[in-house]
Amino acid sequence: QVQLVESGGGVVQPGGSLRVSCTASTFSLYDYPVGWFRQAPGKEREGVACVKSREGSTTYADSVQGRFTISRDKAKNTVYLEMKGLKPEDTANYHCATDFFGYCSKNGSLIVEGYGQDYWGKGTLVIVSS
């Protein structure tokens, strides 16, 4: 069973940093594009960062460019989202996703191609508050 699991969320003060992680147990995240999304209460889901398969280039949403960094550790089969300079408006449930036939858009979203091979984690909550 394909499963993605996020961890590392929590409460952080404005201006602080946090790193969230996404792991998979039944396939290699290195072989497919992986995106980080976030969804705040009452708002639409937003793609914030994406890393391409194998060659590993990255794309970001304008809202997080320069503050967030997506990376991966092949040995640990984990994709990270390092967040710095956090703002209250970054508060959201952050979840990762992959699509075996998908790709990364130029603005940080994972594009799902609709062949039923996309997989999503349940998310980890990040709260930015003083």
Protein architecture, described:
This protein is an all-beta fold. Helix content is 0%, strand content 47%. It is built from no helices and 13 strands. The strands form three sheets. Strands 2, 4, 5, 6, 9, 12 and 13 form a seven-stranded mixed β-sheet that branches. A hairpin with a 6-residue loop joins strand 5 and strand 6. The protein is globular, with a radius of gyration of 14 Å. The chain starts with a strand and ends with a strand. The mean pLDDT is 95.
Structure summarized in a few sentences:
The chain is mostly beta strands. It has strands spanning 4-7, 10-12, 18-24, 34-39, 46-51, 58-60, 68-73, 78-83, 92-99, 103-104, 110-111, 118-120, 124-128.
Q: Please tell me how large the radius of gyration is.
A: 14 Å
Oligomer: single chain
**Secondary structure tally, helices:** 0
Mean pLDDT: 95
Summarize the amount of helix as a percent range: under 10%
Low-confidence stretches: none
Shape: globular
Q: Count the beta strands.
A: 13
Distance between the termini: 40 Å
